[in-house]
Design goal:
With about 220 residues, the chain is mostly helical. The chain has 12 helices and no strands.
Length: about 220
């Protein structure tokens, strides 16, 4: 079924001006039958003015008459010339004002110096630049290399802080996973040093006085 313009307003008109069933109206307008019943009871879309689908070219008189004569028939909407306007527009490519384009090399240099884990593709998408420009800044072959200074892209106004944090986090997580797959360096266990023997002080030996001849035989006169 083709989406129609102003479905609730169309349902209001069909409820008030036709003998269609709630199911037929719901199928045509893309609503739930209970919602159409609510419209009929005045509980839903109370302040919405009805829109005639015959006048705005979304329904033919033949389709309406056929549906009113057969409760099982489901009406087919006419493709509106305004239907293309309802489709979500594709987001336009990132545009950087001319006044800030000269700041891109400074932002690229900041990424190269501080976050080498961020890929060139991510930098190019975020800053609206090209991989060749990033490579020239990295290799210092850029025509203005002498004047390029590493500056935070948030400070330059090229990206928002949340966007920058998200890109850096994703790049760091990916690098950690890649390192793990390649069997990167792991933390080695520290070998335990042999325990020193417990110090036990030597027992103090109390030695008595050495016996002398005088003490054994007595003193001679």
């Amino acid at each position: 079924m083709t989406d129609i313009l102003m479905p609730k307003a169309t349902a209001v008109w069909l409820v008030d001006n036709t003998s269609l069933t709630f199911e037929q109206i719901a199928a045509f307008c893309g609503l739930h039958p209970l919602e159409v019943r609510g419209i009929a009871d005045g509980d839903v879309a109370r302040d919405i003015r009805g829109a005639d689908p015959l006048v705005n070219g979304q329904l033919t008189r033949e389709e309406l008459d056929k549906a009113q004569n057969d409760e099982t028939y489901r009406m087919q909407a006419v493709v509106s010339r305004h239907a293309e306007l309802l489709k979500p527009a594709k987001a336009p490519p990132k545009y950087t004002p001319v006044s800030r384009r000269q700041d891109r090399p400074d932002a690229i240099a900041w990424f190269v110096r501080n976050h080498p884990e961020v890929t060139d593709a991510q930098i190019a998408k975020m800053l609206g630049t090209t991989k060749s420009t990033i490579e020239s800044v990295r290799n210092r072959t850029h025509w203005n290399s002498a004047n390029i200074k590493a500056v935070d892209p948030v400070t330059l106004g090229l990206v928002g802080q949340l966007q920058l944090d998200d890109v850096v986090k994703k790049a760091a997580d990916k690098k950690a996973k890649d390192d793990l797959k390649r069997g990167g360096p792991t933390i080695q266990e520290i070998e335990a040093e042999p325990a020193e023997p417990e110090f036990v002080p030597d027992a103090v030996e109390r030695r008595g006085a050495e016996p002398t001849a005088e003490s054994v035989f007595g003193k001679r006169d």
